[in-house]
Amino acid sequence: MSATRPLHLAAEIGGPPRYAADSHVTLARLAEGGALDYVTLSDSFGRPGPDALAVLSRVAPATTRIGLVPTVTTTHTEPFHVSSAVATLDWVSKGRAGWQADVSTTEAEARLFGRRSAAPAGALWQEAGEVADVGALLWDSWEDDAEIRDVATGRFIDRDKLHYVDFEGSTFSVRGPAIVPRPPQGRPVTVVDGTSGPARETAARYADVVHVRATSPEQAAALRDDLRRSAAAHGRDPDGLRILVALTVDLGDAEKTPEPGLESGPQLAGRGTYFRGGPVDLAELITRWHRGGAVDGFHLTPITPERDLERIVNGTVALLQHRSLFRTFYPGGTLREHLGLGRPANRHTLARTSGGHSS
Amino acid sequence: MKQMHLAAHFPGVNSTTVWTDPRSRSQIDFASFEHLARTAERGKFDFFFLAEGLRLREHNGRIHDLDVVGRPESLTVLNALAAVTERLGLAATVNATFNEPYELARRLATLDHLSEGRAAWNVVTSSDAFTGENFRRGGYLDRADRYTRAAEFVATARELWDSWTPDGDSRPFAHSGQHFQISGEFTVPRSPQGHPVVIQAGDSDEGREFAASAADVIFTRHGTLEAGRRFYADVKARLAKYGRQPGDLKIMPGVTVVLGDTDAEAQQNAAEIRHQQVSPQNAILALEQIWGRDLSSYDPDGPLPDIDPDPRSDLVQGRVRVADPLAAAARWRELSEAKGLSIRQTAIEATARQSFIGSPATVAAELEEFVTTDAADGFILVPHLTPGGLDGFVDQVVPLLQERGAFRTEYSGSTLRSHLGLARPVWKS
Fold this sequence. Notes:
The structure holds two protein chains of two kinds.
Chain A: E1 8-12, H1 22-33, E2 38-41, H2 52-59, E3 67-73, H3 79-92, E4 98-102, H4 107-113, H5 121-139, E5 147-150, E6 155-157, E7 167-168, E8 173-174, E9 189-193, H6 197-206, E10 209-212, H7 217-233, E11 242-250, E12 261-263, E13 273-276, H8 279-291, E14 297-302, H9 305-322, H10 335-339, H11 347-354
Parallel strand pairs in A: 1-2, 1-14, 2-3, 3-4, 4-9, 9-10, 10-11, 11-13, 11-14
Antiparallel strand pairs in A: 5-6, 7-8, 12-13
Helix pairs in contact in A: 1-9, 3-5, 5-6, 6-7, 8-9
Chain B: E1 5-10, H1 30-42, E2 47-50, E3 58-59, E4 62-63, H2 74-81, E5 89-95, H3 101-114, E6 119-124, H4 129-132, H5 143-161, E7 173-176, E8 181-184, E9 197-201, H6 205-214, E10 217-220, H7 225-238, E11 250-259, H8 263-277, H9 280-291, E12 316-317, H10 325-339, H11 343-350, E13 355-358, H12 360-372, E14 378-381, H13 391-403, H14 416-420
Parallel strand pairs in B: 1-2, 1-14, 2-5, 5-6, 6-9, 9-10, 10-11, 11-13, 11-14
Antiparallel strand pairs in B: 3-4, 3-12, 7-8
């Protein structure tokens, strides 16, 4: 397989809970300085921490290019609100929004809402897929040129370019259309952690970016092939999928580690294989895996964001850039452009034009 | 001297905005929100206020296409605005019917942290099965139930906000009531304001009682100085039974302001604006909202229909229903006959809200009179242009109010509670 595919890099900026905006802004700007594709901020109703989508909305005007991908859970939330909030993040960031879909499996989380009991991951991931599905439908429920401001007829919108979604899921239904007009990216980027089996199926069907966990390039390549096959089986173009290996990264004792590399060590901060070593070692690993065509890139979760993200950007990324393996600037403005993903055509506009019919 | 409070309303989905004006810009681009918020902060306003919409309005079974429509989700926009403002309060309207206390309390507390104490929540409810079609809950809550749910919702949110001690320790909460049975641990520490400011909108008896018991600000809509004073006296009198002082609840009607170099010029400007707001199509729509019938064949410049309203109609969906269509129609007929007005002219007069029209000096004096004679504690200004609709007010009226001592010249604190002169809620152990 060709080794010339662009390398994609993303970083988690979570870590211990912080409630003021400053540290998140600092970390996102740091990642932006390294021209990373996006930052993620993990979230859950079940552990201390602020609402991730809110934090990245606060970060949006304080940054200009970096993609912003909060975790948004789908189990106890309203799909209509989720789609509105993610679309709004896209509006306030001018096309830099994504969301990492996740589920809430615990009884403790269920008790916070009191609406339903805990359910098996399989059912919850199926529901998450339906939320992703209805989200895309709602983002398409306004055609891009629905707002017409036609003075002669007094019409602000062309209602023929607004569409009901009439979605009937297994646990919810949504009538539509959206309240938020179609966001700048058309559809914000959907990210799924495809580590677990039930999540992988949803990822293959609905995600633009999948995070996977692998301990060898061979394993990563096999996962990638599997996801691409599965996406194709769902009628998708596999080239519309980006697969990033998730690594939890500890660059803290670079000088002292005799044998840098992957460990099956503690899953402390995020999901993914645990890497310990120096920034140069990490650059070597990324180069080796990516050159072999095993992956599209990496999602790095620094064990200590303030320390490790600085080392990732000024050490690892700088070295990759020096070797011309990673971009030194953003050629585009939107997250889709960073990822090399096209802006999806609106399905209704497409049907209208390809059907040769207009109403 | 009693100083007034001022807030800026960003007019989302509405028929107030004159989008045909060449100065009218996007109602969705962040730049518009930033412009209006920065203008409000430049004017030392207390807060910036966003309404909410959860289902596009329909008319005669089709999406209504005359209004400005399409808006971002409120809390997300306000979090972004927290990055480009420093003192301005940030108020989101969020429905208590189609949300859950744990999630919303968390989102509000997060905004309060990220803005360093500037968050506010305007509590609204919905009894609308039409809107419910977009949500899991679906279904319908009757009028009484939606207020009991809202009251329990606010009380539950306060329990969650109080579940962390001021020292930063989290303690488990457990709430068991008619609408919510929830327990666990809240994920966000007590916010900079203790509790985000709670605003309540609505003039009904239940709404007034709810506001008196639980709100910090009441957002109203009443027409005249006298009506304002009656409302003010009524609501303030209700506070005592909840152990609250008159100053604990600020009364802020939503108003429009139209300026001119002279009073006569302002009157002329106002007439033109009303004419643009109530287009011929919008005049028929306003009529149909009361009559509940398809009146598209009527001439907007002609007389009112002589048929009676259909009180059981579902012609219009997603707007507040006219409580008594027959009485409303009678009122419109009376107005039309007394002044010899056409449909459009009647609609222009009948749908007007409290407006302050005049030279900057006239408007400043009238606003001050409302406040000093206890018809209001302040105002939520609803501009007719997005996003520049408050530029003139901030540049021309605010300095006059400041000269008169009727409005602050600088923020004295950094939180919205401090702007409003509201105490930080006592932590309940």
